[in-house]
């Protein structure tokens, strides 16, 4: 049964699909293209910079991202090297693989469309390389830094069923504990 893209919506924690390891996209069909375009719409509607397929209920190894450029030198999106820190346009990454992370770990505050009102500090390599297929099935490889590298790593984590809850520093985990519990209790239908 093909997916009707118009029925897709962002799912929130603790939906079990967010803990699912996604499986490779076997063929780039019209269905896959329609889903990816719908995901870009949903990402914009939610003011996000990335969205993984399991965040809309599909266990596919696919994510979309749009990391706009920034002129502010203090902004993590601003260029810190010749390595891109932004996407030129909304981009679809199918069956993505990350490689060659920088050895340094940089802290940055992250949020997630599936974890409303939760923000925590996550330490990740500051640069990384991604290889993926585009919507025409062409393989591309790109090196990213700054917020772009951060976004790729966050989204590939989603494809593995990993959330920022698993990666944030102990202090951030503590700070968000009550909110996480609210989300978990809400899902069980208990009064808050
Ligand atoms: Zn997320």
Report on the structure:
The protein is α+β, with helices and mostly antiparallel strands and 192 residues long. It has a single domain, classed as Peptide deformylase (Peptide Deformylase), CATH 3.90.45. 27% of the residues lie in helices and 23% in strands. The protein contains 5 helices and 7 strands; from the N terminus they run αβββββββαααα. It has helices spanning 30-45, 146-159, 164-167, 170-175, 177-187, and strands at residues 50-52, 62-65, 91-99, 105-111, 119-125, 127-133, 139-145. A hairpin with a 5-residue loop joins strand 6 and strand 7. The radius of gyration is 16 Å and the shape is globular. The mean pLDDT is 93. The structure holds zinc ion. The site of zinc ion has 5 residues, from helix 2.
Report the total helices: 5
The CATH class label is Alpha Beta
Structural class: alpha+beta
Give the spatial strand order of the biggest sheet.
1-2-3-6-7
Strand elements, count? 7
Q: Poorly predicted ranges (pLDDT <50, ≥5 residues)?
A: none
Query: What portion of residues belong to β-strands?
Result: 15-25%
Q: Helix amount, in percent?
A: 25-40%
- CATH topology name: Peptide Deformylase
What is the mean predicted local confidence, pLDDT? 93
Bound ligands, each once: zinc ion
Into how many domains do the coordinates divide?
1
Could you give a short account of the major beta sheet? 5 strands, antiparallel
Shape: globular
Order of helices and strands, N to C?
A: HEEEEEEEHHHH
């Amino acid at each position: 049964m093909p997916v009707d893209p118009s029925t897709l919506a962002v799912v929130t924690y603790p939906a079990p699909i967010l803990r699912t390891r996604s499986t490779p996209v076997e063929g780039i069909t019209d269905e896959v293209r329609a889903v990816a375009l719908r995901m870009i719409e949903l990402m914009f509607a939610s003011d996000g910079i990335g969205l993984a397929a399991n965040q809309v209920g599909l266990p596919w190894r696919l994510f979309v991202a749009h990391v706009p450029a920034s002129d502010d030198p203090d902004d993590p999106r601003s260029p810190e090297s010749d390595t891109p820190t932004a996407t030129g346009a909304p981009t679809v990454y199918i069956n993505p693989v990350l490689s060659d992370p920088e050895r340094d770990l940089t802290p940055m505050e992250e949020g997630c469309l599936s974890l409303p009102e939760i923000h925590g500090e996550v330490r990740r390599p500051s640069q990384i390389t991604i290889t993926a297929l585009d919507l025409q099935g062409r393989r591309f490889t790109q090196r990213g830094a700054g917020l772009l590298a951060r976004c790729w790593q966050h989204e590939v984590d989603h494809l593995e069923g990993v959330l920022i809850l698993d990666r944030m520093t102990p202090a951030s985990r503590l700070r968000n504990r009550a909110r996480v519990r609210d989300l978990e209790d809400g899902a069980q239908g208990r009064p808050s």
